[in-house]
Each structure stands twice: as C-alpha cells, then as structure tokens.
C-alpha cells in the first residue's frame, strides 16, 4: 500500500484541503480593458458529485480515479467527502489488496465559501500518513483579469507562501471557467515547482475543472527527478 499512497495524498492535498489566509487583491494589469470583475467562491450544490482522474508521470506513471461529493451545503459552509475508486501503476491495475485499502479511504472536509478549511477528517489512511497540506483560498474580494492575491498553507509541516493570478476567464463547455496561475516559495528543501501551477475553476460552483503541476526534486542518487501531476474532471 505504501508505494501507491503518494498520489492519493497529493490528490487530497490539491482538491480536498482548500484553505489559507488571503490578502486583498492587487491590480495586475494583464488583459485589462473591460474592467469586468469576478468573485471566486465555493458554491457546490448539496448532493452534487465531481469525479476526477489524477495522473502522475515521471519515474513511474500512476492514474487514480476519485470523486468529491457535496454532502452538505448550509449557511455558507460546505461538507465535501472525497473517495477513491481506481488506481493503475505503469498502466497496470493495482493489486486487489491495495485497491481494497484505497476504497476504504475517505476524507471529509468542511470549508467556508472562500475555500478556507474549517475541519478535516481522514478515515482509512495508514497511521502517520494524513496530510497537513492545504491549497490556497480564494481572494477576499472581486478580482479582474491579471489581479493577484497571496495565501499561505502548510506542506509537510512547513509554511508555504503562494501568489496567485487570475490569468483568464472563458466559456468552456457552456460554463464560465477561470484559469488561475500559482507560484510558491518556502517549499520543502530540494523541491521546486517548474513554472506556475495552473488551476481551472468552474466559476459557478467554485470546484476545480483541471490542474497541472510539474515539480522537480533530488533523488537518492542526487539526480533531478521531474514529475508532472495532472487532474481532469471526468
């Protein structure tokens, strides 16, 4: 189970733990013109489910299917339950014992409308493996294309600072989708992000549409290891 765990914990970190403190947005100036503003907020409907495929490519290729369900939406608070339903390693199905353990994993998070995590509960994960990471919350107020804001979260017990930019907003498949670009400082020693992390958000629900992140770290032999993690809505 242990060798298959990192991708699951990464998915929990990216999707299930939005939180962090933001500052007021600052003018970015890119693509300015119309002056249209956008308010990014968590707003999934109770009972709705959002299915994703998370793929990691690098020294090994892993694919994991997961679903987030909005169990409760009340008074500006949202209870999201994340479960896992499939796992492949280098194109092969995970052993039955591993898959059985994965399907028992469940993460429940309660967030407010800004995405700040209020409560987190992980069930079925091996002892000591519960992530303490959190993704950025949304800006504290309306933002325009090119505006930036900042946030902080924890990764591996260490505080990481993020800067986000609203890069664009476009109609995709009949929905208004915002593209955010994020850069980070203060990552664990030896880890770097290659270029910005790109996250697409459904403006109506505040839920992720896709995410792509490329990281570089040092292997045991001192050589650079590059991995790309990509998440897409199924």
Task: Please outline what is shown here.
The chain is 9% helix and 49% strand. It has 234 residues and is mainly beta.
Distance between the termini: 25 Å
| Rg over CA atoms | 17 Å
What's the number of structural domains?
1
Sequence of secondary-structure elements: HEEEEHEEEEEEEEE
Write a concise keyword list for the protein shown above:
234 residues, mainly beta, 13-stranded antiparallel sheet
Tell me what you see in this structure.
The chain has 234 residues and is mostly beta strands. The chain has one domain (2-233). Helix content is 9%, strand content 49%. It has helices spanning 5-16, 96-104, and strands at 49-57, 62-74, 77-89, 92-93, 106-112, 117-123, 148-155, 158-172, 175-185, 192-193, 197-202, 208-218, 224-233. Strands 1, 2, 3, 4, 5, 6, 7, 8, 9, 10, 11, 12 and 13 form a 13-stranded antiparallel sheet that branches. Strand 5 and strand 6 form a beta hairpin. It is globular and about 50 Å long.
Strand-helix topology:
Blueprint: H1 5-16, E1 49-57, E2 62-74, E3 77-89, E4 92-93, H2 96-104, E5 106-112, E6 117-123, E7 148-155, E8 158-172, E9 175-185, E10 192-193, E11 197-202, E12 208-218, E13 224-233
Antiparallel strand pairs: 1-2, 1-13, 2-3, 3-4, 3-5, 5-6, 7-8, 8-9, 9-11, 10-12, 11-12, 12-13
